[in-house]
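Question: Now follow the chain.
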Amino acid sequence: MPATRTSTLIRGGRVIDPANSVDAVLDLCITDGRVVALGAAPEGFTPDITIDAVDHVVCPGLIDICARLREPGQEQKATIESESLAAASGGITTLCCPPDTNPIIDTPAVTEFIRLRAEAAGHARIVTLGALTQALAGEHLSEMAALRQAGCVGVSNALQPMINPLVQRRALEYAATFDLTVFLYPNDHWLANNGCAHEGKVATRLGLRGIPEAAETAAVARDLALIEQTGVRAHFCRLTTGRAVRMLARAQFDGAPVTADVAMPYLYLTEMDISDFDTDCHLIPPLRTLEDRQQLRDALQQGTITAVCSDHQPHEADAKLGPFPATEPGISGLDSLLSLGLRLVDENALELPDLIQRLTTGPADILGLPYGNLGIGMTADVCIFDPADSWQLDNTTMRSHGHNTPFAGWEIPGRVTHTLLAGKLVYTLK
């Protein structure tokens, strides 16, 4: 007996689909998890569900290129169930998990575990990065072929250093043979010297060990040289300095196969935000200068940086209690990713279609995923939000188990009303 077909009509919304250069008030028709029409419904289309999207924006489901979900290994902080629900409430339908879980994603078994847990939760799709080296120790290459076969969309050594540049070169060469994208965190371990803040006047005044700009720029220079040598496709994760951005722009101009992203906090916060030892502003890499922040915004606007992520790192309350250097770095960012992006639009730092591009097709292209667009026949991952609505970010409105955010108390624009994953309604604003 054939399976029952299900259809959804999203009516009267402003459809913004940068991948297909669409920005118009249109109906969106979905059948069996795929887009079947934009505009006039196809003959015989009878929706089972109709969603009124008048005065709302309808766009592809957002893709977060970096979200730590804490499972497996740190379930006291969060779980795949809780964080994928937080993602859905923020219009995010696809999450990319870095390899520094516990156990580390250096075997197909861990990748399979995460996939099954995500499917059981049913709120969002989760893809994984495999470890570049065994146990992320930076010494012996991982089984990259097996990781790719298991579904890993790229490889990375996360924040862990390589034992030496020769091992890194061999790892990049090996990844290139399997056409794998290498995700690089540009941070020279020795120059960073276990610092916790940007090396400058603020860190000096507060007595905090600084991380110099050179920790990032020296790593970018080394990595660009190795990328040119090996021909590997590479992505720079979480750039924070204007000088690194300029180096990246020059490499792109010269034809190097490199991309980059920026995390949302670095588009708003600077080293000045740690002045009262606010541990919610303890991030690695650290918050940089006002000039760096402006250059990151400019690079985002110009297209040098093609993706914005949350760099989601939920923590239990105790992790942020104590002296600044002793606390755990990172913020909980899934709930606020879209709304903080819309605030950039309100500040004229970015146009709305460009923002949606940086949150959908931009990360999809980096990850090599067939999502982030609403073309006919594509998977119907959809985010619907009310751009005129606003809400306050606090413990009562955050769905993530981690409430560690420096944006608590902010009134931010845009409220997600519906999220669809492969045509299935996974979140509705109550």
